[in-house]
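Give me structure tokens for this 249-residue protein.
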Amino acid sequence: MPSPTPTILLLSLPPSILCSINLLSFTTAPSFHGIKNLSPGYHFIFTSETTSHSIRDGFWFYIPTTTEPALRVRKWDGERGGLVGVGGEEDGEEMERYRAYVGEVWERGLMPYRQIVPSQDNAAEVVEEVDHWAQLTRHITARVLTHLTKNKEWRITSASSALVDRDEIPGLQVEEVFEEGEGEDVKEEMEALEGFLRREYGWELGDEFVRRGMLQLDDGEMVEMEMEEMEGEDERGEYAPVVVDLDNP
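Here you go.
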């Protein structure tokens, strides 16, 4: 094993879940146990049990510049659906056991933080990718994270924004959102705008128009009329499919 580097162990992660550290996202494999070669500074990791339509659960952590490479340890909590602390990072003997485990999984179980990419100067060479994260997080401090996350573990979960994202929840009607506070104000403003455009410019912003129907002329005759300018649209203003006969162009 090469000389150890700053590492975070992510233990007991289920395979094929979404995992992300800073700007890199990936799905986990059964052999994945953590990330090595971490750079000093603040990092953010989140996990999600599926790649879409599930809660993201994450946390910030700090890697100091020290003589002995830092080691952080998190373990999957199936009930929570996220990674939690193991509670033994202050115990010297416990951490020695984790450091020994790092040696066991170093080659095949730990992913390097910086990925190997082709060199921009020579495509035949490979180099470590540039770490833009350090520049993005250079103003972050422990005080800032504690203030924003409202907890000492610097945990963040997308579950806290579920009520804000109601418009994205399948089955929830827009009218239900408008009935609550701010949505009603928006609805009134839009109705006022629609009325102004109708009075001043004759605009009709509704989504139901009759394109074909019977019209009574001045002499009483009934004729069928059709609006050809809306032929490419249906009654709700969306483009209708057009069937093309390729045999008879």
